[in-house]
Amino acid sequence: MNHANNDDHLLVFVVKSRRGKADYRVDLSDWNGHGACDCPHFLCKLQPKIRNGDRGRHLMCYHIKEARDLLADNVIAKIIESETEEPQF
Ligand SMILES: [Zn+2]
How far is the CA of 35 from the centre of ligand 1 (A)? Predict the structure, then answer.
């Protein structure tokens, strides 16, 4: 994992911008699980609509989608790991 990493919380990710010039902090627990990002696009364009009650994938910026993919990768890896563990007796 080289372009994002877990912060202090399982649902917090640091995601690099598409051009790699900035890091954005994504908290997937914000807005009741929709997720929030500190990039300008989310803060200026998307969050005001979420504040009005709109939800949906079209209101997730690139970084939130990346963080959700990373979360899925982590969960899938954990499930595979737990399924391949030797039974403990
Ligand atoms: Zn963003």
Answer: 10
Convert the pLDDT of each residue in 13-55 to its tens digit: 999 998 989 999 999 999 999 999 999 999 999 999 999 999 9
Q: What is the β-pairing status of strands 36-37 and 12-16? A: unpaired
CA of 39 to the centre of ligand 1 (A): 4
Rounded to the nearest whole angstrom, what is the distance from the C-alpha of residue 19 to the centroid of ligand 1?
13
User: How close is the Cα of 75 to the center of ligand 1, in Å?
Assistant: 22
Using DSSP's 3-state secondary structure scheme, residue 55 falls into coil
Going across the sheet that includes 36-37, the strands are 4-6, 12-16, 23-27, 36-37
From the CA of 67, how far away is ligand 1's center (Å)? 10
> How many C-beta neighbours within 10 Å does residue 83 have?
7
Note the pTM of the prediction, 2 decimals.
0.83
3-state secondary structure of 68: helix
